[in-house]
Fold this sequence. Notes:
The complex is a heterodimer.
Chain A: E1 46-47, E2 52-54, E3 60-64, H1 73-85, E4 93-96, H2 118-145, E5 153-155, E6 158-161, E7 164-167, H3 172-175, H4 206-210, E8 226-231, E9 240-244, E10 254-260, E11 263-268, H5 271-280, E12 282-285, H6 295-308, E13 313-317, H7 320-325, E14 329-337, E15 349-355, E16 358-363, H8 368-379, E17 386-390, H9 404-415, E18 420-424, H10 427-432, E19 440-448, E20 454-463, H11 466-478, H12 484-500, H13 505-508, E21 520-526, H14 541-559, H15 563-570, H16 575-590, E22 598-606, E23 609-620, E24 623-634, H17 641-660, E25 666-667, E26 670-671, E27 689-694, H18 712-724
Helix pairs in contact in A: 1-2, 8-9, 8-11, 11-12, 14-18, 15-16, 17-18
Chain B: E1 2-6, E2 9-13, H1 21-28, E3 47-50, E4 53-56, E5 69-71, H2 73-76, H3 84-91, H4 101-114, H5 120-127, H6 137-149
Parallel strand pairs in B: 1-5
Antiparallel strand pairs in B: 1-2, 3-4, 3-5
Helix pairs in contact in B: 3-6
Amino acid sequence: xxxxxxxxxxxxxxxxxxxxxxxxxxxxxxxxxxxxxxxxxxxxxxxxxxxxxxxxxxxxxxxxxxxxxxxxxxxxxxxxxxxxxxxxxxxxxxxxxxxxxxxxxxxxxxxxxxxxxxxxxxxxxxxxxxxxxxxxxxxxxxxxxxxxxxxxxxxxxxxxxxxxxxxxxxxxxxxxxxxxxxxxxxxxxxxxxxxxxxxxxxxxxxxxxxxxxxxxxxxxxxxxxxxxxxxxxxxxxxxxxxxxxxxxxxxxxxxxxxxxxxxxxxxxxxxxxxxxxxxxxxxxxxxxxxxxxxxxxxxxxxxxxxxxxxxxxxxxxxxxxxxxxxxxxxxxxxxxxxxxxxxxxxxxxxxxxxxxxxxxxxxxxxxxxxxxxxxxxxxxxxxxxxxxxxxxxxxxxxxxxxxxxxxxxxxxxxxxxxxxxxxxxxxxxxxxxxxxxxxxxxxxxxxxxxxxxxxxxxxxxxxxxxxxxxxxxxxxxxxxxxxxxxxxxxxxxxxxxxxxxxxxxxxxxxxxxxxxxxxxxxxxxxxxxxxxxxxxxxxxxxxxxxxxxxxxxxxxxxxxxxxxxxxxxxxxxxxxxxxxxxxxxxxxxxxxxxxxxxxxxxxxxxxxxxxxxxxxxxxxxxxxxxxxxxxxxxxxxxxxxxxxxxxxxxxxxxxxxxxxxxxxxxxxxxxxxxxxxxxxxxxxxxxxxxxxxxxxxxxxxxxxxxxxxxxxxxxxxxxxxxxxxxxxxxxxxxxxx
Amino acid sequence: xxxxxxxxxxxxxxxxxxxxxxxxxxxxxxxxxxxxxxxxxxxxxxxxxxxxxxxxxxxxxxxxxxxxxxxxxxxxxxxxxxxxxxxxxxxxxxxxxxxxxxxxxxxxxxxxxxxxxxxxxxxxxxxxxxxxxxxxxxxxxxxxxxxxxxxxxxxxxxxxxxxxx
Lengths: 737, 165
């Protein structure tokens, strides 16, 4: 794929030279700056806007602004734009957009994918973009054919005129001379007229992924490409003291052994050669504070902070003391959630090529703009001369928003004469040198009165915060020119703020918001031993829902109220959550679990969507088996319903790994686990049947990739309690027989 | 020099005999459909067929396949001529991120080759060697069962044609 740089000031806005192979972009948003759209120069093609190209063969190409990590974003966004453009999404040619301000995520203001934002943020902008192109084609057809626009219609990339089907491509030469309609006022379809949105259809990337032809970052292979493997300190932030390359430098294929900021890089002609050499390399690392820390210490420090320290508060409502006084019973419980690794199937990797002052970087990331910034910062090459080529992501789950591997590969190519380099992390690198879901100790103390109303809710969480760490990782990427000292100052300031005055919302999100309680308070104590932290699917909700929904069952039992009823009476002010709980209650009534099987339910609102789940489990010889998960989701309009189902299935399996297996332990400051033998992932023989109910809604679409995960742990824990009478408050769930 | 048959073609490599087959196929023969997931035979992303049997090639030295028939996902079917399992995968929207799916399909194809009509439990037991982090297990099982019950298998894992290289 080639990208054309043509100075935009030489052309009129939205002009295109058809036939010359020159393509220039214009900004849909009006804030495109001076950078040209990184679209392919296709002979004779019409670049209608940042998202749509139509070729002379009437092939419609969609430049997908978000990254595909399995969440089905190409299918979802492709269907959205295709609906208004009136093209069957199945025939779209979808490519991943390069870096440009037109491809910003409207939810973030930068080009990144995450937070279950894609569909909600792009639903209107992409429909408008599609409708504008269809309108241009119709205007052009009207002019070319001499037929009133009102007499023309469209069907699957054809204009229908007097009963004749004429391809869109027939009108692209005229269309490019016309002015696009205003996006804010362009006529959008009535929902009743949708042909593709809301309908069942296969996902658009299925064939590539079933035939091994989908290109992931690790599959990129260029002429004269060298392969790099990096040895990193097992203890985060330990400094490199020395390395002895004498035994390694003469190994077959090895070309370079060099220090980079993350450790020692070994470069070879082939991956396996680099890998063998890196393993043999003798490296010494410094001792840091974390080096003396193990898991028991972390847990003890968390517990001490929970019992003895006070931290900043948030979510205060009413009078907590009065609330507890009016309670007829008070329940107080502590819940633990460990560090987790994302363990995406594709280990971190990237390919870089530096040639004639131009950098090309191929990788599947959740932040192409961040990749560009890190490459610029590392190589000193201006962003204008850096092209980021986004591939498919072999899983993301939040991990591919942190891009130290991009910096590593850029350093290697920058510091050596090997200008085309692929860096591949091993699974051990992924588990041991990653960024993790923070461990959390949570306490909830709640009171309930004799009418079954919760009178007081006091929650506290102890653990590290991801925002300072995120700043540390994102600032150098977003602001390549920012000096390290300033970055350190910003990170230090954010640490100070969260340690003393304010609560990092992502640390406690989901701990108190879902149910109405007149008297409540959330407090937070930061205890951070220096284990690297980042977002993991559903972020804070991934552990807070476990505490909150376990406590709801504990309280309901104390109050002698049915757990569904108990939740309903406290969720009156949250209609979406109320709705899914109500459906869950109706389904539970119809369920007839087999002998020895027990049910548990949980519900949670996150990423603007609500999900309730019912777990059917059995316990035999201390072993928990999950037989079936029933999932009710309200995510507004389900644009691609099968993708919504798939994401619920996926979140349930991801959640079950955390419930049944997921646990990282720190030993001498290092992560003890290393691969799938000691960090097991749920396998098919443990996978339950899943049934998904999507609430029919015509509200705007909301998050889907993450909200299915938070209810999994508490639903299973509540079912295990029903089965055994043991209330398990620590993840992963382990029965004491 | 090690010689073996790759998707019906005889190929030769002078890679170190200890190099895992996966890296020889990916880096030397440039077939990228088989994936690196764990390097320890734990996840199945690298699964290929060795004389029709599923093997984890991230731990299989290339020296072990001298004179043998190796089939990768590219040899199982192509976009224009898909194996029935691949068709089922597409129709039932099995993949999510898709990274593990080549290995899943190669395992499934070997299973059906040996046991054309497996029970659900047999499918679960056999496929437990392949991890899918996106958790597509329900659909993987469904796709395998639909092919097992329905379509005829046209694919012959042991077929070889000699090609001069």
